[in-house]
Amino acid sequence: MKAYFVGVMGVALLLAACSGHTEKDGHVGESEEHQHHDEIHQQIIQYTDGYELFAETEPLVVNEEVSILAHLTGLSDFKPLKDESLAAELKVGSQTVHAEVLPKIAGIYQIKLKAPQAGEGQLTIFVHDKRERIDVPVQVYQDDHEPHHDIEEKSPANAVSFTKEQSWNVAFATGLTRMAPIGQLIKTTARVEALPGKSHTLTAQTSGTLTFASNSLVAGSPVKAGQALFTISGSGMGDDNAALVYQSAKGDYELTKAEYERMQQLVEKEIVSKREFQEAKNQYEKAKAKFDNLQQNFNAGGQTVYAARAGVLEKIQVRNGQHVEKGQTLVTIASYANLQLVAKVPSRYRNDLSSVLATSYKSVGQSWKKLDASLKSVGQRVDESSFRLPVYFEATNSGDLLPGSLIELNITCSSNRPQVVIPTEALLEQQGNYFVYVQLNPESFEKRQVFPGASDGVETVITGGLAEGERIVTKGAVLVKLASVSNTLDPHAGHVH
User: Alpha carbon of 297 to those of 231, 232, 290, 304, 308: distances in Å?
Assistant: First the structure.
């Protein structure tokens, strides 16, 4: 977590927009009573896991009331924070003062406070009834002259203004560059299949005529575990029909049960031997086990076929009213929550595949996406038709992976040398050169040339022009570019001060 204090007196784009505004808007500008030609302004920038704080203020001086104009952005969607319960306090040394917080418009708040003493302090902004907080280190000065020595004036070159109000109204985001051990990139295609362990084939336990349990059972239909799918009736057919097998097992069970209960009474009176009783008991237990097993899927009308697990009817291999034989395949049920990807990779990459770092994919008509996948195995034999090694992945299905389809697959392998990586969407191409917008502050950006390397479609390696931890525009870079070239767009149009 970092906080930044930036003197913006030298930033022409920002000061040009701010000059001329009056105190009634919460930002001190020129007035008839007092001219602030030598006024210094600070910008406070703070990021937490959930929020971006961008505040403009005069330097904090002991016993002088200041108005801090705070812009608060939620990092989950880079939209303005809407929180009427916002509160703030300033702590310097052992003294704490509560600030007055005035909501102006969505995402923008005016914080009024008066510092009790000089020194290093902490400004805390409480969000959502104090369930979350943003802590910002601040410096409180003894008099008005100290800030002139402490705050350095900077005038960044080719700065582009893109206000918070502008970014809130479009698809926009920023992020930090990161280091990743990106190595060999393998581009290939993969076939999407159901996982073998997640497919289950049901077969007929008896011969007979098959009837669908529902007219809505078609390939692709979802089913629940234990759902009835078919009934197989063998009435009037040979000795192997379901009704006959069920009735025979039921008769044997009832007969052996009665004999067992009779023998229990006789053995107690020592009318029969224990050996005879034990034989009756064994016969009963065998008949009971057979009948209990049949009861799970059979009744007097025949066999009922149930779905053993939840999933999708991948293949239905019978027709309603068809005669089926015992052991015949009826249906295949598959789960598509996780899928198998079968890729064919040139054998020269065999050693690289021992250290797969990430994968990304692209279906027809879609953009590149990160793939939550793990390498399951690498074939030990080259495929005879393609002369490539088969490589198997297990992937989480986000909803757009269709079994049976082909996808473009990028396999990124790791290396021992980390490199700067950015989202591919952050790159802008201009006449064969590539650029990104580096954030100077949340409303000012610098166009910088970079040199891209390998890309998996989602992320791109940068071989020059950026360092780790720099904040860049990751979404909406083209909109910042348009703002930089527009001569009619007021850089602070709609900006509340």
Answer: 9, 10, 12, 5, 11
Yes or no: is domain 236-300 CATH 1.10.287.470? Answer: yes
pTM for the model: 0.72
Domain ranges for the chain: 3-155, 175-194+337-485, 236-300
Q: What is the CATH number of domain 175-194+337-485?
A: 2.40.420.20
More confident residue, 271 or 47: 47
Kindly report the average pLDDT of the chain as a whole number.
84
What pLDDT does 15 receive?
33
Query: Domain 3-155 belongs to what topology?
Result: Immunoglobulin-like (2.60.40)
**The length of the chain, given as a count of residues:** 497
Pairing status of strand 459-464 against strand 471-475: unpaired
Least confident among 262-266, 300-304, 376-380, 443-447 = 300-304
- pLDDT above 80 (res 88): yes
Residue 486's pLDDT band (boundaries 50, 70, 90)?
confident
Instruction: Inform me whether the pLDDT recorded for 496 exceeds 80.
Output: no
